[in-house]
Amino acid sequence: MKPTTTFQIGDQATFNVYTDCHAGYIIGVSKSGRTVLFQRGNAQLLNGATDALQFSVGGFVGHTSGDQRYAITANPNGSVSKFTYRDLGDGKGKYKLVGSSTHSVGNTLGAGHHHYYDYNF
After folding, report:
1. Helices (H), 29-113
2. Alpha-carbon 28 to chain mean position
């Protein structure tokens, strides 16, 4: 089965670890498109006075709420991860980090920049 999402070198992508999501870029694609290399970018939090994140006491050490906004730029020294396309047997599939289980939570790669840091963990 062909991948449902096709990546090209230079495409924006997001490595969804579990609750954290790291934005970056595709830096390598196999001929079949089933293996891609992802490089993590630099993420600068842009929230300011008008849309600042709110911190309150609770949970383990506190709770953070608000919409996070980031500027993402390429980082030639960013960590590189390899992902392979996995067929799920239902006509769908997903890119998973090499070495991770196909059906485990997290370790997936998606299109576009969607950086997120979970301050609540």
Report:
1. none
2. 16
Does residue 3 sit within a domain?
no
> pTM for this structure?
0.86
**Does 118 reside within a domain?**
no
- Burial of 115 from C-beta contacts in 10 A (0-12 / 13-18 / 19+): buried
Contacts of 99 (CB under 8 A, 6+ apart): none
What number of other Cβ atoms are within 10 A of residue 46's Cβ? Answer: 10
Write down the mean pLDDT value for the chain. Answer: 89
Q: pLDDT (tens digit, 9 = 90+) per residue, 63-118? A: 787 888 899 999 999 999 999 999 888 778 999 999 999 989 999 999 999 998 88
Q: Which amino acid is at 35?
A: T
Q: Distance between CA atoms of 28 and 83, rounded to whole angstroms?
A: 10
Tokens representing 31? 């001929």
Residue 46 is part of which domain span? 12-111
Domain tally for the chain? 1
